[in-house]
Write a structure and sequence with these properties.
By secondary structure, this protein is α/β, with parallel strands linked by helices. It has ten helices and nine strands. The strands form two sheets. A six-stranded parallel β-sheet has the order 1-4-3-2-5-6, sandwiched between helices. A three-stranded antiparallel β-sheet has the order 7-8-9, covered by helices on one side. Helix 6 packs across helix 7 (about 155-165) and helix 9 (about 205-215) packs antiparallel against helix 10 (about 220-235). The longest helix is centred in the middle third of the chain and has 16 residues, at about 125-140. It is globular, with a radius of gyration of 19 Å. The structure holds pantoate (PAF). The site of pantoate (PAF) has 10 residues, from strand 2 and helix 6.
């Protein structure tokens, strides 16, 4: 695997592949790769001839008091994992390469409405930072396919909408949430958890699962269910962020006659803000 730090060198590498008719799959990441990321790379390798990953801890998607400076950076280990998983090129630029005119004057890509809900409400500006960098990375790599994880369910919906609204010629594929044996969704932020917090954290997944089962057995008082789940999470040591039962089509609050739902939840365990979700069909 070749690691490239500049847009020009990556484009030089990819041009001959494109000219030879080879397809390119792209996996954008912020590094500190775990088994969930590796499944994205494997899906990319199954879906195209050439696999490109990026590692860029994107400052635009972090709020002022968030973990930008402490976000884990493990480039060497990541390079090893990517190589083993069959990645051909790693794009690992520094901030000046991506935002040469500074963060504040960067043209923004905004997906309205969806970006203001749930994680967007808790983290104002977060999704605008995500769509701006993903759009730039798509323009740099020009992939046929891009692969995202379903753990970041709202992010995936927003990226799909951006691609559709801006007629970006990249097909978006997704990979289901990858979990530890405890049920906890894998996340780079799990590394912030202490041993005891790691034992408590699977309660997020369990609470979502329990709510899904109650809905499947006929409960439709969604606001009450959301309230009960929040109380359960607090009793399990979480600080609340949100727990929402929504419809998949537009992520609006679910109504009694909706059949395609998803439960989206975020909660704080100690220093880590964890998110998880579960789709359900009625
Ligand atoms: O999901 C992530 O790791 C990031 O939000 C992404 C898509 C790499 C953009 O920085």
């Amino acid at each position: 695997m070749l690691t490239l730090a500049t847009i020009a060198s990556l484009r030089n590498e990819l041009r001959p592949h494109r000219q030879a008719g080879r397809t390119i799959a792209f996996v954008p990441t912020m590094g500190n790769l775990h088994a969930g990321h590796i499944q994205l790379i494997e899906k990319a390798a199954q879906s195209a001839d050439i696999v490109v990953a990026s590692i860029f801890v994107n400052p635009l998607q972090f709020g002022k008091n968030e973990d930008l400076s402490s976000y884990p950076r493990t480039l060497q280990e990541d390079q090893r994992k990517l190589t083993e998983a069959g990645c051909h090129y790693l794009f690992a630029p520094n901030e000046d390469e991506v935002y040469p005119n500074g963060r504040d004057s960067q043209t923004r890509v905004e997906v309205p409405v969806l970006s203001d809900l749930y994680c967007g409400e808790a983290r104002p500006g977060h999704f605008s930072g995500v769509t701006t960098v993903v759009c730039k990375l798509f323009n740099i790599v020009q992939p046929d396919i891009a692969v995202f994880g379903e753990k970041d369910y709202q992010q995936l919906r927003i990226v799909r909408k951006m691609v559709s609204d801006l007629c970006i010629a990249t097909e978006i594929l997704s990979v289901p949430v990858v979990r530890a044996e405890s049920g906890l969704a894998l996340s780079s932020r799990n590394g912030y958890l202490s041993v005891s917090e790691l034992q408590q954290a699977p309660a997020l997944r369990q609470t979502i699962h329990d709510a899904a089962n109650q809905i499947k057995s006929g409960r439709q008082d969604y606001s009450q269910l959301e309230h009960e789940a929040t109380v359960t999470l607090e009793a399990s040591g979480f600080r609340r962020d949100y727990f929402r039962i929504v419809r998949r089509a537009d992520l609006a609050p679910a109504q009694a006659d909706d059949t395609e739902l998803v439960i989206l939840a975020a909660a704080w365990m100690g220093p880590a803000r964890l998110i998880d979700n579960q789709e359900l069909d009625l």
